[in-house]
Design goal:
CATH topology: Metallo-beta-lactamase, Chain A
Radius of gyration: 19 Å
Number of domains: 1
Number of strands: 15
Oligomer: single chain
Largest sheet: 8 strands, mixed
CATH class: Alpha Beta
Length: 360
């Protein structure tokens, strides 16, 4: 069961277009170099997804796209135009008196979701910047304000950081959260040194299937089919993945970026059926190029069913134009994929930025 909170934005104004970025970017060559240089390469024992120098998607996974394939896509691109700016009309419900088994989920933007349990507030891949880019003047630019202003946030206890791409790891946002909340950041192997260099004091890095206890909750880092790298010198030097958070007998899954993979069945088998799954539905065209690293809505519905999730929430759409589909296409394609699979809109929801739902 879920309850929807969607009230007029003017009760708690976020600030409109001029306030689209709550964290002003650091400018200049030094800031750019720090961003793309990341940290020292991870060193550790080889495994089925690490060859001693670089991570990969494990046995049987399709190979990552090559630089030549990337340029083939870019040479022939014909992206559907997006609007320059959109206004959304939802106001988050951030101070709800939650029962011990209730979870409030507020969609902020892209892959950023605020999860509130009783006594615990969690952010997934927090991005409040104007651009998903190492540059302040170029790169994918947001087309709507964050659904929650940075200063509106409740005290944040935990940040889940799936991987180091710019639309998921925003240094300026993380530094702002450190100053205001000093949360524990849980992420994949190879990211801690970079984050600590930027001033984050409580970073836990995990390998796939490793578990940490944080603020009375269990956090397990789960496999995903993707890649990492913030610059040409750091490709696959840090690990990507998703998370299962277990608290008060409830399980929430945040997938991170991923293509379809057998990991979804393994997650259910090893960790149990899920109460809520946060699953990406955007950045999927052209399929010949994106299939390996990003699910489309049909894949996301398949993942919802494979995971045994009671409810899923769509992410990774409608904020930054990263690929060629139109801004409304993921939501339309999700509706069709749900219809074909017999999944209701309540079971796999799309929220507007700022919308809060409480799940019981």
């Amino acid at each position: 069961m879920s309850t929807v909170f969607d009230t007029p934005r003017d009760r708690h104004p976020v600030g409109g277009r001029e306030a689209a970025s709550a964290v002003p970017p650091r400018r200049g060559l030094r800031a750019w170099l720090r961003s793309v240089r990341v940290g020292p390469a991870f060193r550790g024992a080889a495994s089925d997804h690490f060859d001693g120098e670089r991570f990969h998607n494990g046995p049987g996974a399709p190979p990552a796209r090559s630089f030549g394939e990337f340029w083939r896509w870019h040479r022939g691109r014909a992206p559907t135009p997006w609007p320059e700016w959109l206004e959304h009309g939802a106001t988050p419900a951030l101070d709800l008196p939650l029962a011990h088994d209730e979870i409030a989920a507020t969609f902020v933007n892209h892959m950023t979701v605020l999860l509130q349990f009783r006594g615990l507030a969690v952010l997934t891949d927090p991005v409040w910047s104007t651009r998903a880019s190492p540059l302040a003047f170029a790169g994918p630019r947001r087309v709507h304000a964050p659904g929650v202003a940075l200063e509106q946030l409740p005290r944040i206890d935990l940040v889940l950081l799936s991987h180091d791409h710019y639309d998921h790891l925003c240094v300026d946002t993380l530094v702002a959260l450190e100053r205001a909340h000093s949360p524990v950041v849980v992420t994949g192997l190879g990211n801690r040194a970079f984050l600590e260099r930027e001033g984050l004091r409580h970073v836990v890095e995990l390998d796939w299937w490793e578990r940490a206890q944080v603020a009375g909750s269990a956090v397990t880092f789960t496999p995903a089919q993707h890649w990492s790298g913030r610059g040409p010198w750091h490709r696959n030097r840090s690990l990507w993945g998703g998370f299962v958070v277990e608290r008060a007998g409830r399980r929430v899954f945040f997938s991170g970026d991923t293509g379809w993979s057998p990991a979804f069945g393994a997650i259910r088998e090893r960790l149990g059926a899920l109460d809520i799954a946060l699953l990406p539905i955007g950045a999927y065209t052209p399929r010949w190029f994106m299939r390996v690293q990003h699910m489309d809505p049909a894949d996301a519905v398949r993942a919802h069913l494979e995971l045994g999730a009671r409810r899923s929430i769509a992410t990774h759409f409608g904020c930054f134009q990263l690929t060629d589909e139109g801004i409304d296409q993921p939501v339309q394609d999700l509706a069709e994929a749900r219809r074909r699979a017999g999944v209701s809109a309540a079971a796999f929801a799309t929220l507007v930025p700022g919308e809060t739902r409480v799940y019981r």
